[in-house]
Amino acid sequence: MNFFTEPTAYEKTILSDLQGAWECLRATLVEQAGFAGWDKLLFHTDEAMSWETVCHLERMAPLVVLIRNLAIQGHAPAQVIEEIDEIADILAEVLSVS
After folding, report:
1. Fewer CB atoms inside 10 A, N or C side of the chain?
2. What is the CA 19 to chain-centroid distance, rounded?
3. Tens of pLDDT along 42-69?
4. Cα maximum dimension of the chain
5. What are the Cα distances from residue 86, in Å, to 21, 60, 73?
6. Domain spans of the chain, in order of start
7. What is the number of other CB atoms lying within 10 angstroms of the CB of residue 58?
8. Could you tell me which residues come within 8 angstroms of residue 59 by beta carbon, excluding any fewer than 6 positions away?
């Protein structure tokens, strides 16, 4: 009987970059909490990182637009906006390859 063994090397993919970018945004939102609507941004960020959204990446693009709009309306710190832009860039690359 063969047992599944854990690989010893992992290949970094664009999806891991996307996941990392979302994690960075979420951490920044928690650190920078206090600006208008930060809690809504955190909610929608969690939604974008959910299994249902990750399984259907086409659902992620509208969430990025919503998150960016809420961040701009709430006068989010520049770092938050930059991280959202990074997510948008990576997601565009992911969707162009799919």
Report:
1. N
2. 6
3. 999 999 999 999 999 999 999 999 999 9
4. 59
5. 7, 14, 19
6. 14-97
7. 9
8. 52, 53
